[in-house]
Amino acid sequence: MSGFQPYYPQNYPQFQNVYQPPMNQQNQVQSSVVWVGSRNEAESFLVGANNSVTMWDSNGEYVYRKSADASGRPEFHAYKLLEEGQNVPDYATKEDLTKLEGKINTLTDKFRAIKKEVRRESDDD
Question: Quick check: pTM over 0.85?
Answer without folding.
Answer: no
